[in-house]
Amino acid sequence: MTRQRYFFLILILGSLATLGPFSIDMYLPGFPAIAKYLHTTTAQVSLSLASFFVGISAGQLLYGPLLDRFGRKKPLYIGLTLYIIASVCCLLVKSIEALIILRFVQAIGSCAAAVASVAMVRDLFPAKDNAKVFALLMLVISASPMLAPTIGGYVTAAFGWQWVFITLAAIAALMLIAVIFSLPESYKPNPDFSLKPKPIIQSFLSVIAEPQFYTYAISGAFAFSGLFAYVSGSPLVFMDVFKVSGTTYGWIFAILSVGLIGAGQVNNVLLKRFKSEQVVPVAIVAQVIISLVFCAGAESGFFGMYGTIVMIFLFLCCVGLTNPNAAALSIAPFSQNAGTASALMGALQLGIGALASAGVSMFNSYSALPMAAIMGITSIIAALVLFIGRRNIKHHFVPDASEMMAAH
């Protein structure tokens, strides 16, 4: 494979992988404008974010079998087309209920891109290059939380919130063209692959029965769900409570993303001296302490805008340490059905994240307290699951380098 072809394939796969993160982050600065247009509240608009998380969670389980049965490109065609249609419909909505439903449909479409991009890395590149390619993909994905809300803030300020969905539809259309004409079919359709529920469910049950999986996958999912609470609650906190503009909020979101991304890089250094199973409990305990301090300060009104930013930054640093290690430890016991384990882990993360996101929306408090409270509750549950579940693990399977890259 030539260097130019190598770069072009990574560019396409990286773009596909970022469709979901862009869809989540880009419209956040438009929450107040959407709420005003639909005659509702910012908290209600955030339910459209929760429905997106539910859609991605369901899609994780849906597309894995479809990609193995029909090849990689046909499910991609369907997913991207569905995404484009849903995006166009989002800009035409007249009620918050319609937006919530359409965001769910949009998520189902975007999930095809996320799942296919990971599968195609293993199809198109030699096994020895997988870790390097995953690292390059993660570099592209890591830029999304910094770029998407900032771009969304400027687009909303200049043209209105509807143009965010026009932009997302245009991006997906370009991806669809690239997939049709420039991305090879990397996996021959397998008509013998069963889509019947029973063998699929049996495969999932065999994964769930492994103590190392359920301990780290569930604790990691609850720890990670604090991030979803932040994403869902931050538009109200910063734009409604602290009265910053959409563009300023985009920059705040980008700055806070440095905590998550930077911690991932620090984690690579820590793993040279410590094991993943040593890093996870320390990071989760720190996450519990920080979230409880944040919750107490938010309840008493102690933290202003800058104090809130500092507390969220520290919380995201903990998430950045917990998530890749818990994810890698979750899939480490599996060799034959690593794809099933990965899909189930992703579904758990996004499903619990959707509940955390919806939980923030259920409060009517005009403060940072709902967001901080959900962060604290999910962190405590994560710690309990971890320390109770570890008692059932007889032998820790150790993740290899490629699993650590995939977990990032």
Automatic annotation (TrEMBL):
One of its GO terms (biological process) is xenobiotic detoxification by transmembrane export across the plasma membrane. Coiled coil: none annotated. Its main location: membrane. Signal peptide: none annotated. The chain crosses the membrane at residues 7-24, 44-63, 75-94, 100-121, 133-155, 161-183, 213-231, 251-270, 282-303, 309-331, 343-363, 369-388. Residues 9-394 form the Major facilitator superfamily (MFS) profile domain. It is a multi-pass membrane protein. It is found in: Cell membrane. GO terms for molecular function: sodium:proton antiporter activity; xenobiotic transmembrane transporter activity. InterPro entries: Efflux_drug-R_Bcr/CmlA, MFS, MFS_dom, MFS_trans_sf. Keywords: Cell membrane, Membrane, Transmembrane, Transmembrane helix, Transport. GO terms for cellular component: plasma membrane. Pfam families: MFS_1. NCBIfam families: efflux_Bcr_CflA. Belongs to the major facilitator superfamily. Bcr/CmlA family. This is Bcr/CflA family efflux MFS transporter. It comes from Mucilaginibacter agri.
